[in-house]
Protein: Ca-activated chloride channel family protein
Amino acid sequence: MKNLKRIFLFIGVMMLLLPIRQDTLAAEEYHGQPAKNGEIVFLLDTSGSMNSNDKSRFAIDAIRQAVCSLPSNYKSGLVAYNTGIQTIVPLSGGADPMGTQLSSVIYKGYTNAGEGLNQAVGLFSADENVDRSIVMVTDGEIDMPDKQAKESSRALYSETIKKAKEAGIKIYIVAVGSELNDPNMHIFDGAEMTDGAIYWQGQSGNLVQIMNRILYDRMNLPKRSVGVTDGNGGSLHVELPSPGAERVKVVLTSGQGIQNVTADYTADEGHITSGRNFAVIEMTRPASGAVDVRFQTPELSGVEAYMTVEYTARPVVNINYRREEVLPDAGSEEKSKTKFPPLYKHYADLELSLKDTAGKNENLWNTPYYEGQSVPFCVNGVWKSGTISGGLIPYSLPIDGIDTVTVEFDTSMFAEQYRIEQPVTEQLAPPPDPIPEPEPDYRPLWAILGALALVIVLILLWWYKKKNAAVIYVSQSPSSKEPVKMKTKACTYSGKFSIYVVRTADGRDVPPQTYHLFGRNSGRMTLGQILASCKIKLGKIGEEDIIIYPGPDHSVIIMDQSERCTVLRGMEILKKGMGYPVFYNEKITITFEDESTEMEIHYKNLKPSERKS
Structure:
């Protein structure tokens, strides 16, 4: 009986403290990864045929455009090849050496792509946590003076592709001219085998557009679009981000050429790098709040403008201390007559921000641009996600038993590039607890709270039992007018889902995924849980409201509880809130609430080998 009283007392105290902890720890769980450095090698075909397919040397201009657009944490190199290797520029952080070598390139000779790719792969470092890419610009297949040399180059090309794949190097191939019109050509194996991509000049856009797609869509380099203009010239007013940026680039590109680019701004340093189809205004520690750019184009053509911003920063942790009293355990009837000193749980209410360390030493997030944005952060080894409010991210941390707090951020999702001096560690120094005063006897209240807690526990147990024995209404054949009740507790999962993301709102490609159902605990699942397990991130567009249960005869039950999703079983639209059985080799098609994202889910049986594994 005494032990039962203790249990009631403990549950009552926890029920009082639980709502407070839920509010203060509102940040959701998050496992973040820091942004990576990058290495990119441009592999340029300088064979004689390029004199016909690249008369205006737009390929060279496009490579200069890409190099000048890279953030400072990316190193770039160059290999130009024809019958042999014409020139090599080792990996470095500057665009000037690259521009000098590119200007001296001559188109002549044959196409020794095997040796060119071999030299390009050899330029990369052995550093860890680095994204590595090769951008290959070519107009034809491997071609050498004799058959033996040609076969040797082809073999070396195939062997080097395997090395690139093992090293995690992605190869992007830009096909110029009209000779590379067959996607099954041997030269394209480099992109296919390394999870890269192939772009055809004309079909995939002009070379300016293709380079932008590789940098910003494929390699996901941070940038912010700041304007698109039409006409044969004009001006652009670009508002710069919060004070404290270490480096800002404004990149202008046009497929028909751009000339006479000037810019008005105030910065410690600055210069303009121009090409035939691009211009880059680079500013170091800009002091003004905007830059005004003027330019001309030779024809009526559009000009796209992007801005890249780099910060050097350090996390800042402001700490306010808080304590909450915990009522002690009565222990025994004799012990309960003794007055115990109050017990406290102690918390640190943190205010997290990011301070510029290269300029004005200000809070970088204290601007309207960052208000409401979500930021992953790590406190003492646990990743969370919080929302910026007034330049700060609030977070509450229980501090009993710990002396320090260590904080770091993951800013890889921003359109700006951050170099952060982290993690930072702060010592905890909470104020001493107050001297207790005599308190009234709360034992009757504790007994009531304990009884209430017991009732709540019984209700939760009843709810949990009911949840595991879920009853759903399942749609039957068209001849059946009424749906049939079905309990899912006795059913088990089998088979697997083959998941294909047909279309996304932002146009990105998502590889097909397989999700094994066989052997999983019976019970309710959501499509959102499955997509998270497959690491498919689509945003909150209704995937959590697509419900899945195990069904009889190796079926699964699909139920659409969303507001605006459209779910089809074959050609049949699923009614909201109604379960539908799906059997092996049937297909579910889902159009999500953003009306852009579309997905197909094929339900298939497992092979015997898959069941063993």
Residues 443-468 form the longest helix (26 residues). The two ends are 50 Å apart (CA to CA). The domain at 473-612 is CATH 2.60.200.20 (Tumour Suppressor Smad4). Residues 73 and 498 are 38 Å apart (CA to CA).
